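Hello Y.,

Per our agreement to keep a running log of every chain we model this quarter, I'm adding this entry. I've kept the format consistent with earlier entries: sequence first, then predicted structure.
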Amino acid sequence: MRYALIIGNEDYTSYQEGLEAEMNVEYAIRDAEIFKEYAEKVLAIPTENIIFLKNGKVLEMKRALTKMNGVIKNTKGQGEFFVYYAGHGFPDEITKEPHLMPVDVSGSDLEFAIKLTDFYKYFTEFPSKRITVFLDACFSGGGREMGLLAARGVKIKPRENQVAGNLVVFSASSGEQSSLPYKDKQHGIFTYYLLQKLKESKGNITYEQLGEYLNSTVSVRSLMVNNKEQSPQINVSKDVVETWKKWKLMGD
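Predicted structure for the entry above:
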């Protein structure tokens, strides 16, 4: 059985004082909504098996993660899980630890944000058949417009996270890069091409093929559209390093 957690965090200014509108994550909700459609129609995930959050606050995100953790536990290694997040990421300036940012948490209150390492642990504490994560976020302090750090103009290279379990993570950008919009298409540029390939392939594509497509397409189009480099990357658990390339989105 397949399950999904889908989060689109777009509107940070309504939940925090002192943020400018450019610090919102343009199109993140639209990204999440259309990914949900594709999750149902292409990835064959039943609607009742999808947890969907728009502008997730910290308690809502943690409740959703706890629920998904419980589902993984109770499917006893037989479940397959997809996770999609569009929104801000943020690095700890000292430790370089990357965090996912609920809409009601600021960069100065990182103890309330969700460490990326903890985020992954919710999915890998118990055995599962497979976990696939798509992150249309960056963790350098940049963002689709200004990012939460843009007022200071600081970019930080986030620390690489080691992942465990049957987990593969497709990330929108690398290192100090920002994850940028594709304004003409009203999507994040990473999500736009992810959706394009899902639609075109109907899920009949290996993870290796998807990764190569996203890297080659997004990296070129970002330069053409945004005049900035954005190179998607894949983070793979050591437990599946020998097998993940042959995985298929619609199953083996």
